[in-house]
Amino acid sequence: MKNVEIKAKVDNIDHVEEKAKKLSDTPLVVIDQHDIFFHVPSNQAACGGRLKLRQFKDGTGELIYYERPDVTGPKTSTYSMVKLDEERRRNLRVVLTQSNGVLGTIEKTRNLYMVGQTRIHIDRVLGLGNFLELEVVLNDGDDPKIGEEIAKNLMKDLGISENSLLSGAYMDMVLRN
């Protein structure tokens, strides 16, 4: 699966949220997430590879492996994801902790809005601050350039400037601090 993503630091989160709400095709969905990042082999890490186990409030989760270049601006991300019930998530956490080791954790509240094929995430990340992520979901055969154009247009609509764009993942920010 592929998408085109951007991540930006947000100073006035209420302003961005209001704009996202007006653009959205769907009602707001609030998602509390606890992400555990695991070490990956150095050859995977070198190409932007990350492995995380995401836990939701109800105990269920998702195992997600993704590769994304660490650059600002729209970038193509490829990923694989498996949805997990609570027992499988718990057991997988034990196995991955023993086999790979934990790199770190991220806790956030994510407000999700949909605009066409784009997921707008307004994230309040514990210890890091407020952020916006755009994920333009690509269908098989879609040219990533279309996703980049969609992301750039939504950035304008949401009032996100290029100088607020970030590279990397929240985990990278935590590790740098």
From TrEMBL:
GO MF term (any one): pyrophosphatase activity
Record Gene3D superfamilies: Hypothetical Protein Pfu-838710-001
Signal peptide range: none
SMART domains: CYTH
InterPro entries according to UniProt: Adenylyl_cyclase_CyaB (IPR008173), CYTH-like_dom_sf (IPR033469), CYTH_domain (IPR023577)
Family annotation (Pfam families): CYTH
Domain CYTH as annotated: residue spans: 1-176
Superkingdom of origin organism: Eukaryota
The protein, known as: CYTH domain-containing protein
Organism whose genome encodes this protein: Nasonia vitripennis
